[in-house]
């Protein structure tokens, strides 16, 4: 279980990741974001509990993404599979997600919504993940964004699977700050 609280003058986000996907409660005051995060939880197989308040939609969405990314990064076991790759069709939309939780930050999009493109960039940066989202086709922005959340959720599910060792030729990477 991973619990984080992020507070600024603009927002307050309380987020919890749990292993039971049935334990999902989302309240961000943004109905579409709540729907997308519930979808992410279901497809990733990870319970997400979020209570978030904020002044502006952009600030709230960004701070939820920052907190979610940090939680994913902290939740990923050292011996996880690291990689996930899924393509999801949803009506007119077809979205591909490739994910690596190996500690290198990269985001490549874009999505047809600046807000949700920024959301995924913030998740990737704070999870210290490489995330590629490719919109292969789609006209309806709702369908494209929802297919992206589903593809990301399925890729995340695959990447979090615990294996029998660290999935890297480098072994476990340690970075320590000395004073």
Structural features, described:
It is a single chain. The protein is α/β, with parallel strands linked by helices and 179 residues long. The chain has a single domain, classed as Ribosomal Protein S5, domain 2. Helix content is 37%, strand content 29%. The protein is built from four helices and eight strands, in the order βββαβαβββαβα. It has helices spanning 31-44, 57-75, 114-127, 141-159; strands spanning 2-7, 11-18, 25-27, 47-54, 83-90, 93-100, 106-108, 130-137. The strands form two sheets. It has a four-stranded mixed beta sheet, with helices on one face. The protein has a four-stranded mixed beta sheet with strand order 5-6-8-7. α1 packs parallel to α4. The relative contact order is 0.19.
């Amino acid at each position: 279980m991973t619990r984080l609280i992020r507070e600024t003058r603009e927002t307050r986000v309380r987020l919890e990741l749990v292993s039971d996907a049935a334990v999902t409660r989302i309240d961000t005051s943004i109905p579409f974001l709540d729907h997308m995060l519930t979808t992410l939880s279901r497809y990733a197989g990870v319970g997400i509990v979020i209570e978030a308040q904020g002044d502006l939609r952009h600030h709230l969405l960004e701070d939820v993404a920052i907190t979610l990314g940090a939680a994913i990064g902290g939740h990923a076991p050292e011996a996880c599979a690291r990689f996930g790759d899924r393509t999801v069709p949803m009506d007119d939309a077809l979205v591909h997600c490739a994910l690596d939780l190996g500690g290198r930050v990269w985001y490549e999009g874009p999505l047809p919504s600046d807000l949700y493109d920024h959301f995924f960039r913030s998740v990737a940066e704070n999870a210290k993940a490489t995330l590629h989202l490719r919109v292969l086709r789609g006209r309806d922005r709702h369908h494209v964004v929802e297919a992206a959340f589903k593809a990301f959720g399925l890729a995340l599910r695959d990447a979090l699977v615990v294996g029998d060792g660290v999935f890297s030729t480098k072994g476990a990477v340690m970075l320590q700050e000395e004073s």
